[in-house]
Amino acid sequence: MQKKILFVSLFCFLTSLIGAQTANESFSKTNRKDTIPLFVNISYIPYLNWKIIGVNTSDGGELKYDFDVNSMTSVEGNFAIKKIGLRMGLSANIDNNYISKAYSYGGYLGIRNIWLRMQSSKVSGTYDWVGALPSGFGNIGRFNNKYFTIEILKTSGAYKHMSGGLSVNRVMGTYWGIGFTSMGFPMKVSTLVTPGGRENQQYGKPVYDTLYTAKFGTACFGFDMLRQLCFTEGNLSAIDGKPAMPFAVYATTQDKIGFGSGKVSDYAKNMAEELNPGLDMVKQSGFTTLVHYSLSVGVRYYKKLNPVFLLVAAGYDLEGAAVLTFAGAADTNKDLGYDTNFFYINHGFSVKLYISYMRKDK
């Protein structure tokens, strides 16, 4: 099924390129220098390994996971991405986020050197809670959540301040951007109680939550050697006057920080109040931060098939983040606070395909 979707997506993109060729050939040289070529990138991780690590382990209770075999799909580009994204099950309008709207407005305003990136993965499997359990609540079951990211990215001039300057960036391809990330994970929730005052908080009886969600507005910075090779059509390398080698190694990386809100579900709230009687849980949502890093390394090969530039790559992707909540404190002896700080890691073998339209200077 995935192969069929990929084939249909590529066919639609190539058809779009042919239809757009006439319009693009009318661009002036000045416009070409300021505008990235029409391109699309599809990245696929067939087996994504997930791991969730809770910060607090001193109050007892443990939530064990057995993750399903889930994949992750990423699509990015500045042309026909909505059509291709939808055919691969990715919609830019998830959670009515502001990034998809900003991208549309940017297109109307003619903002150059920007492109859209979407990434999605299912997070599902079974859980086993080892800890106290009130009547009416089960200790085993299934979880089914989703991980989604959408970003507007733009070429960066940061290379001007880096060692090597332009000669480095024509290979590295620095960029920056803003985005939106939503996620849902199963996790252990530590509870907080106090005789009075936050300074006297202690841990209560912990619970689990398979429906925890968080949403963030994000800012990112990174470099992508594959995307840059696609932009330069293989004509540039770190050596002046020399084209890039058709076969070589690659690396891409991104640092990201996000600010938003995390929310404990009603299920976890009810369970926590049952195990800690006489207390009422404080507001279930609050200010939460995301500190994120991703890395991909591997080998790549490109081929010029005029008017198409084709780039394929295979490598290994690693992504990790800390999700820290600055909410949930217990202030009075009637409050039931909570702590949901955790880390997550995912990794897996990836295949990537870049296709771009090769522009002609006149």
Task: Describe what this molecule looks like in 3D.
- The protein is an alpha+beta fold.
- The protein has a single domain, classed as OPCA outer membrane adhesin/invasin (Lipocalin, Beta Barrel).
- 20% of the residues lie in helices and 50% in strands.
- The chain has seven helices and 14 strands.
- A ten-stranded antiparallel beta barrel has the order 1-3-4-5-6-8-9-11-12-14, surrounded by five helices.
- It is elongated, with a radius of gyration of 24 Å.
- It starts with a helix and ends in a 5-residue tail after the last strand.
- The N terminus is likely disordered.
| Poorly predicted ranges | 1-34
Number of extended strands: 14
Tally of helical runs? 7
CATH superfamily: OPCA outer membrane adhesin/invasin
Query: Beta-sheet strand percentage?
Result: over 45%
Chain-averaged pLDDT: 82
C-alpha termini separation: 43 Å
CATH class: Mainly Beta
Which word captures the global form?
A: elongated
Please give the order of strands in the largest beta sheet.
1-3-4-5-6-8-9-11-12-14
Q: What share of the residues lie within helices?
A: 10-25%
Largest sheet: 10 strands, antiparallel, barrel
**Taking Cα atoms only, what radius of gyration do you get, to the nearest Å?**
24 Å
Number of domains: 1
CATH topology: Lipocalin
Order of helices and strands: HHEEEHHEEHEEEHEHEEEEE
Class from helix and strand fractions: alpha+beta
Q: Identify the CATH architecture.
A: Beta Barrel
